[in-house]
User: What shape does this take?
Amino acid sequence: MATSSAPVNMTAGARGARRWLLVAGGLLLAWLFAALYGHILRALLDDWLHDEDYSYGLAVPFVAAYVLHFRWHKLAQMPRTPAHWAGASCLLFSQVTYLFGYFGAEFFLQRTSAVLLGCGIILLLLGARMLRALAFPLVLLQLSIPLPSIIMTRITLPLQLLSSAVAERVLRLCGVTVYRSGNILQMAQQTLNVGEACSGIRSLVSLVTLAVILAGFSRLCWIRRVVLVLSAVPVAIAANALRVSGAGLLSYYGSPVLTTGLWHQFEGWLVFVITFAILYGELLLLYRFPAKETGQ
Assistant: This one.
């Protein structure tokens, strides 16, 4: 009995030591991550709290946590096949991205490097298959990072002009005399200024993120998921253009009060609900067409 129990005791001791080593390694990685990215994540949280274009980012970590909880049983059964070279390369690339963002004072690159770091750790410890399984929450986290100001400016101005041009045509079709100068719509008794807040960039980034969530929880094949996500862009742009047109009609036939304050915010929420209904209807249509579906 003594000779047979010794290996068992050694095995149990080895398992205990390995467990404590993993815990210590995890705590060390958590400390290093907090030291390197703590101030960056605090600034990101501040953006979520004060930047209305990315206020939906507050919900993204909870959605990502729910995805992990929802798929935990399946993830636990997946084989671990560490990709050491790919993981190390991804880790190195994440830190190069961090340095470029740090020395270039570009927060987007610094925050993106945190997502890349997570990808590198998953590759290094768990393998490419696990990374594919976790791609959905990682993409959500990336979408919650505000784009650089230079990109937002280049997107916002064309959207303003497009919404203004569509609103001008719709108003004229409805019998309203209107003169447009850039993003200014001049009517008989009212001037409508299509500002940055009315460009639709807020609904665009929010709707694309919502489309990613719908696609991630769906059972569609990956091609149809991509179609669903890409379709959110024209839907958001068209809906915002019609919202500006509706604001002009309410101002002309109703009262200018209907285009400001709570009424204006309500119109924005109503249009967003309609665009979500359109995306959900598109999702149901994609289910109706026969195709080979892949499970989650």
